[in-house]
């Protein structure tokens, strides 16, 4: 894992002295310019890892372990809230679930299931407040159709609803949230495409 950052010029820094294999990853930066990343690495099964430079050096902690060979975690996402606390979302294809976690202490994480999701291969996490995660994810429907879903989190759990259904396989998708509007009124925007057309929808 490398960090490439720019103040006056671009610099490249290695985070590990030994070689590791990373399958998927995502990063966010807090208000103190500390890096927070989520990534997977194979180790018989798949280790879901959190890495941060908050202490001044890169420290890695295991969030979860998926006891399955291959790449059962095709997509991961991390978002830092207004208190500089990291939040995590990922797809666990071993049990066809979207999962969410918060860091409760050093090497300690609280994991919960957001939703079941058939053949899900994309997830995106945004925060509208310390206790209000917004998670976008996709899943396959019967035939060549796909569905975009949104999960709105609160201390009581997640409210999950579908946003769009397509008659084609989604080839690219992303999510953005207007976080300055507050947890109750934030507009949520999706863009997605097939091989020919770019679509836009908001919730």
List the helices and strands and how they pair.
Layout: E1 2-6, E2 10-14, E3 25-29, E4 35-43, E5 45-52, E6 59-66, E7 76-80, E8 86-92, E9 97-105, E10 108-116, E11 123-127, E12 133-140, E13 146-154, E14 157-166, E15 172-177, E16 188-193, E17 198-202
Antiparallel strand pairs: 1-2, 3-4, 4-5, 5-6, 7-8, 8-9, 9-10, 11-12, 12-13, 13-14, 15-16, 16-17
* Percent range of helical residues: under 10%
How would you spell out the order of helices and strands? EEEEEEEEEEEEEEEEE
**What is the β-strand count?**
17
Residue share in β-strands: over 45%
Shape: globular
Structural class given helices, strands, pairing?
Answer: mainly beta
Rg measurement, Å: 17 Å
Q: pLDDT under 50 segments (min length 5)?
A: none
Report the sheet with the most strands, covering strand number, pairing sense and barrel closure.
Answer: 4 strands, antiparallel
* Sheet with most strands: strand arrangement: 3-4-5-6
Distinct helical segment count: 0
What is the mean predicted local confidence, pLDDT?
Answer: 88
Compose a concise summary of this entry.
The chain is an all-beta fold. It has strands at 2-6, 10-14, 25-29, 35-43, 45-52, 59-66, 76-80, 86-92, 97-105, 108-116, 123-127, 133-140, 146-154, 157-166, 172-177, 188-193, 198-202.
Q: How would you describe what is shown here?
A:
The model has no long low-confidence stretch (mean pLDDT 88). The strands form five sheets. This protein has a four-stranded antiparallel sheet with strand order 3-4-5-6, with no helix packed on it. Strands 7-8-9-10 form a four-stranded antiparallel sheet, with no helix packed on it. The protein starts with a strand and ends with a strand. A hairpin with a 5-residue loop joins strand 7 and strand 8 (86-92). With 203 residues, the protein is mostly beta strands. The protein is globular. Helices cover 0% and strands 59% of the residues.
């Amino acid at each position: 894992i490398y960090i490439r950052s720019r103040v006056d010029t671009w610099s490249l820094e290695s985070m590990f002295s030994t070689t590791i294999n990373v399958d998927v990853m995502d990063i966010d930066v807090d208000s103190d310019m500390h890096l927070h990343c989520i990534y997977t690495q194979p180790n018989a099964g798949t280790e879901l890892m959190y890495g941060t430079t908050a202490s001044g050096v890169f420290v890695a902690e295991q969030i979860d372990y998926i006891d399955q060979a291959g790449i059962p975690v095709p997509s991961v996402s991390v978002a830092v809230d207004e208190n500089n606390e990291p939040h995590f979302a990922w797809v666990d294809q071993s049990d066809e679930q979207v999962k969410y976690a918060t860091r409760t202490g050093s090497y300690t994480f609280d994991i919960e299931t957001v939703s079941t999701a058939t053949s899900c291969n994309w997830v995106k996490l945004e925060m509208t407040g310390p206790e209000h995660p917004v998670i976008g994810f996709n899943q396959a429907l019967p035939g060549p159709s796909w569905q975009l879903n949104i999960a709105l989190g609160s201390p009581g759990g997640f409210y999950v609803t579908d946003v769009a259904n397509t008659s084609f396989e989604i080839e690219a998708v992303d999510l953005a949230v207007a976080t300055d509007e507050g947890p109750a009124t934030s507009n949520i925007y999706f863009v997605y495409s097939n091989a020919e057309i770019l679509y836009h929808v908001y919730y």
